[in-house]
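A reminder from the course coordinator: this example appears on the midterm review sheet, so study it carefully.

Given structure:
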């Protein structure tokens, strides 16, 4: 945007009642300094205006040739955007200090005329009309963000883009995170949630439910089956045990007979336990396990033993090693997965994103819930911080000086402000090109 294209004469404080001193301790700077700044301002205005003219010429040529050469449509769009940006920024910058082209358009010459009032009104307007909880919720509800997001997430490129950005976030997070700090957090969580609480009562309660439902019978059956198999396949071992424990004066054939008898009885006994689900041995095992579950919950001695086992299994070195291995495993697995677009994690993540997007489109109930969550979150932020946000505007404007400062700014920094016009021209051209390109790709 342009400050008026006509040269601006240097302004002296002595020419204005109550003017701002022009130099340190009230001294005016040399006239040549103001003249140099005015000349530089004129040059920048001429440059910004030249860019606008160039854009206009390019637009005319491209508009005339676009039907014959379709590629000129992009040139025309860029030139058109550049002109719009240049004109808009010219008007905006000019309106800050004076009436554009001398025309008293309402709400221009903002700084010298209504600096404080406009600052207060602007802050109040933004707070009331833009930072209203109801307005924000209604706007978000009418936008139906959930369905639009779902349509994008379920589109061919949506999941890939989400996965790509998510991978970048994960890699960035791992670069920022300190391994020692993360391991310390994991270790503290293990100590808080795993080591500090006593093991006996919760293990006992869990065991009690397992034993009451009979889920342990499968394990008992497995142990009995393995015992029967072992006895059946180890008759020589049984005979040798009998012989080794027999007195030396007993004849060897007697040892053999006794060993065979012991083997047969043991085998019969184990098979009886195996075949009878209500065998006394099984009942004894059930009774022992149920009593153990009760002792783990209520017997101080048994609870202390459980704590001793915990201390042996998970001492300080073991906990630190567990935290280190856990973090290294998580970090390595995630980095490997995000770096490989065909990894199982990436493929499943993309599928989940696509499925979620599809559900947002086809499931009105889910879309409604998501829209409600978004509206509630935005409403809370607006309700909580609306005054603070609007106060930034009011306080900033209140700190400005009056008309003298407006005139001073035009001379002192007007040259730099002309870069707004130049940037507006360039950015407008790029924006026009980008918008036209995206529209052509999507709807062309």
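Designed residues:
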């Amino acid at each position: 945007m342009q400050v008026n294209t006509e040269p601006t004469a240097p302004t002296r404080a002595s020419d204005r009642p109550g003017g701002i001193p022009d130099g340190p301790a009230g001294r005016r700077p040399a006239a040549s300094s103001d003249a140099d700044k005015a000349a530089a301002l004129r040059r920048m205005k001429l440059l910004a205006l030249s860019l606008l003219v160039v854009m206009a010429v390019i637009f005319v040529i491209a508009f005339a040739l676009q039907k014959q050469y379709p590629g000129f449509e992009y040139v025309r769009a860029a030139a058109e955007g550049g002109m719009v940006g240049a004109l808009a920024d010219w008007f905006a910058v000019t309106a800050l200090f004076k009436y554009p082209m001398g025309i008293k358009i309402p709400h221009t010459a903002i700084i010298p005329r209504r600096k404080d009032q406009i600052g207060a009104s602007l802050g109040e307007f933004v707070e009331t009309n833009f930072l209203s909880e109801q307005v924000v919720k209604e706007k978000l509800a009418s936008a139906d963000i959930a369905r639009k997001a779902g349509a994008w997430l379920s589109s061919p490129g949506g999941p890939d883009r989400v996965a790509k950005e998510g991978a970048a976030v994960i890699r960035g997070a791992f670069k920022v995170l300190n391994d020692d700090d993360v391991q310390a957090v994991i270790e503290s969580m293990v100590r808080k949630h795993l080591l500090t609480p006593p093991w006996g009562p919760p293990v006992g309660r869990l065991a009690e439910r397992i034993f009451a439902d009979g889920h342990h019978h499968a394990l008992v059956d497995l142990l009995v089956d393995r015992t029967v198999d072992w006895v059946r396949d180890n008759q020589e071992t049984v005979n040798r045990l009998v012989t080794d424990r027999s007195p030396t004066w007993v004849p060897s054939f007697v040892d053999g007979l006794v060993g065979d008898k012991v083997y047969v009885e043991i085998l019969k006994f184990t098979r009886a336990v195996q075949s009878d689900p209500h065998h006394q041995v099984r009942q004894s095992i059930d009774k022992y396990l149920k009593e153990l579950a009760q002792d783990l919950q209520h017997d101080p001695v048994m609870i202390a033993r459980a704590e001793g086992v915990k201390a042996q299994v998970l001492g300080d070195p073991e906990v630190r090693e567990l935290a280190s291995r856990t973090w290294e495993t998580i970090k390595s697995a995630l980095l490997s997965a995000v770096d490989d677009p065909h990894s199982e994690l990436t493929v499943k993540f993309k599928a989940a994103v696509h499925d979620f997007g599809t559900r947002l489109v086809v499931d009105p109930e889910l879309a409604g819930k998501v829209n409600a969550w978004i509206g509630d979150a935005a409403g809370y932020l607006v309700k909580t911080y609306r005054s603070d946000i609007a106060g930034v505007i009011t306080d900033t404007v209140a700190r400005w000086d009056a008309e003298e400062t407006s005139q001073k700014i035009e001379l002192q920094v007007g040259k730099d402000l002309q870069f707004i016009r130049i940037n507006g021209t360039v950015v407008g051209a790029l924006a026009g090109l980008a918008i036209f390109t995206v529209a052509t790709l999507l709807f062309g």
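Confidence is low (pLDDT under 50) at residues 1-30. The chain has 18 helices and no strands.
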